[in-house]
Amino acid sequence: MSTATSSRQGGEWLQSWDPENDQTWDKALAWRTLTITTFTLTMCFVAWYLPSAVIPKLNALGYSFSKTELYWMSAMPGLAAGLLRIVWMVLPPILGTRKMVALTTLLLVFPILGWGVRVQSPSAPYWELMVLAFLAGIGGGAFSGFMPSTSYFFPRRMQGTALGLQAGIGNLGVSLVQLLTPWLIGFSMIGFLGGSQAMKVAGKPNTQVWYQNAAFIWIPLILIGAAWAWFALKSVPVKANVRQQFDIFGNQDTWWMTLIYIMTFGTFSGLAAQFGLLMGNLYGSGNADIVSGSGAAAKILVEGYSVPDPVKFVFLGPLVGALARMLFSPLTDRMGGAIWTLISGLGLIASIVYTIPALTPDTSSAAALQGDFTRFLWGMLAIFLFSGIGNASTFKQMPMIFEKRQAGGVIGWTAAIAAFGPFFFALGIGIMGATLFYWVGVVWAVMCVAITWMRYARKGAPKPG
């Protein structure tokens, strides 16, 4: 892989590009690229996590899926993203930044449009919604192309900040879709695109909503992003075929960093997709010990307990994780990434252990149940915080650990594997139960802390970064 002068001609391809040379580096072009790719990556995360805002409400809109079916549906975008990231990780040298970003952004229209159409009438077969959930994974797959592509434009000393800003702001797409959905569905601002639906809400039978708004509102922004990318971006002539890019697998640090990034981004993406369902099943209408019946007929069995509405809380976790990734990225450039990865791992161990007791709510009284919910919420937010810190620090480590020719590929690969987080979280919680699955998370984090200390963070480490 080389960024030397390219023989390819035309306005799209830069003829020579060396961000390590301050005298020739075009700083304005680099930051313009970061701005555009960050905006479009935010739209990618919106598309990826739109199902997580829609799926918990499908039965209230008239569908009749089981808990297992809903867990599998919510897992599908994560499965798709992990598979598609393996594809997208090899695209930057082949397509170039301009074509890859513009065309990928345009593809987001299909799942967004599909969900907007199918929430309007509870008649879609299960397989069709599973296909739409899979297509939403395009937004997650894009990450493994966008991030390495952006890294080509910045010197190594700034890549922690640049990639942290891009990923952190992009991650905000998760919070945007989860925060805005409850507001967007409440009025007929674009009612000409479809009529209202009657949604079953406890105490408010047949509440009128326009759930298609939660999808259709993003389509103009996606189209703007695709056009902006097509007309304003350039491409760095990085030469590498698929076989050359896959030589990263002969480097042991590729595998160590993959395990560590599963701990950080795998946790972030998995919990972001499952937060609402988990909260509802533990502390809301999904827990038969708390609520009996459904819809207007629901009855709260624990007297004095206020059932939380997940939509009021689920955006907070991804928001905390995304802000942590942005705010700690400059610190990783100053102090190195390894020390912050170590802090991330230790923080995850502590916060997961703190949260575990709240995964078995005490329904003996309203006070006990409310106390458990408070512990659950703060514990989850702490997990998001430390996973966000680790997301920033690992992306600083990789350009420092690997030679320039390999760093982009490793970023793409680790991101691809960690994107399976929503799939494995849904699968693990569904099969093991939340408590056992969280203990598995503790063991994984302990392993990653040991790897980070021995390989990267201790004095005299083989690969300090």
UniProtKB/TrEMBL annotation:
It comes from Arsenicicoccus bolidensis. This is MFS transporter. The chain crosses the membrane at residues 29-50, 70-88, 100-117, 129-148, 169-194, 214-233, 254-277, 311-328, 335-356, 376-395, 407-430, 436-456. Gene3D superfamilies: MFS general substrate transporter like domains (1.20.1250.20). It is found in: Membrane. Belongs to the major facilitator superfamily. Nitrate/nitrite porter (TC 2.A.1.8) family. Keywords: Membrane, Transmembrane, Transmembrane helix. The lineage of its organism: Bacteria, Bacillati, Actinomycetota, Actinomycetes, Micrococcales. The keyword Transmembrane applies. It is a multi-pass membrane protein. Its main location: membrane. Pfam families: MFS_1.
